[in-house]
Structures are given as structure tokens and as C-alpha cells.
Amino acid sequence: QGIAGDIGNEAVAVRRFNFTGDRNDIKIFADYSRQADEKLQALEAIISVEKNKEVIKTIRAEKQKYESIAEKSFAAKQADDNAAVGQYMNAAGIPYKASMEAAMKMVDAVDDFVQVDRIATNAKAESIHWTLLLVNLLAAGLALLIGQYLSRKISRPAIAVSQAAAAIAAGDLSQPDIVVDTADEIGDLGRS
Predict the structure, then answer these.
(1) 180 neighbors 186 (Cβ within 8 angstroms)
(2) At residue 42, what are phi and psi to the nearest 5 degrees?
(3) What letter would DSSP give residue 171?
(4) What's the pLDDT band for 116 if we cut at 50, 70, 90?
(5) Which among 5, 48, 126, 152 is least surrounded, fewest beta carbons within 10 Å?
(6) What is the C-alpha to C-alpha distance for residues 82 and 86, in angstroms, rounded to an integer?
(7) Could you read off the pLDDT of 25-34 as tens digits, one per residue?
(8) How far is Cα of residue 4 from the mean position of the Cα atoms in its chain?
(9) Is residue 144 classed exposed, middle or buried when 0-12, 13-18 and 19+ CB atoms within 10 A define those classes?
């Protein structure tokens, strides 16, 4: 869009000069031409699709034709040859229109690229979202299973001791021996 804007501003400067003869418009024309060239060069450096490279070549070629005709119209205006100015202005319309159409094609191509990239990025983000959700659910389920296992392992001997103590307190001295399965459980009982 910047390239199209610069080319359009070149055309404004040419027309204004051809009507007013103000030499500042020639400098303005040259500035916009340079800016458009810089943008085209930057775009060429990042464009990889061959079809879009051809569009850039078209923009550059038509822009050069247009600017060549514009330079002739500047000379004709300075020579006060208004008939030649009119002829050059008419002739400049064709490459100007072609360069603007090519610039708009490039804008459309960039828009298409952005849309495709946005869709791919959204799909990737969606995939990552679901993967993270699944991993979190699996981690939570595993944590619940480990927690339940550990709580049973720790509480089983404590419950057995508590039940035996309650029975002995009630006068039943015939309680079986409490067997602890592992040294860890003994340590757990000692800590509780």
C-alpha cells in the first residue's frame, strides 16, 4: 500500500507541476519516487513466491515508464510547450494505471499471505492448547492416583492401631498383632 501511495503521490506532484510550474513539485516527485524504489527493494528482499516477484518486476517496469514520461512532461512544461505537456500526461496514464494495478495485486497477495499465515498460526495455537489441556488432565489424574495410594498406605496401619486401641480400652484384650508391611510404614507410624 505504501508503494501504491508513493506512486499516487508522484502523479499528484507531476500534475501539480504541470499546472503551476512550481519547481518544488519536481523535488516532491523525486522524493516519492525514491521512497517507492526503497519499498520495492525491501519487498523484493522478502518475497519468495515467483508469481509475486513478477508482480514486483511489473510495478518497477511500469513505474519507470511512467517516470520517464513524467520527466519529459517536466521538460515540456519548463519549455512552455503545453501541447507536449498534454500529450505526455495522456501517455503517462497507461503505465501509471498499470503500475497501480500491479501494486494493488501485491497488496492482495500480501493480504492472502497474512490470512493463510493467521489460519496456520491459529491452528497451531489450538493444537498446543489441546495438548496442554490433555497433559494437565493426565498430570492431575496421576497426582490423584498417587495421592490416594499414599494416603491408604499411610492411613491403613494407623487405622488398625486406632481400632485395636479402642477395643483394648473397651476391655477386649484379644486383639491380633498389628503387622507393618514395610520399614517405611514403621517410620510413618513413628512420625504420626
Answers:
(1) yes
(2) -65, -40
(3) T
(4) confident
(5) 48
(6) 6
(7) 999 989 988 9
(8) 23
(9) exposed
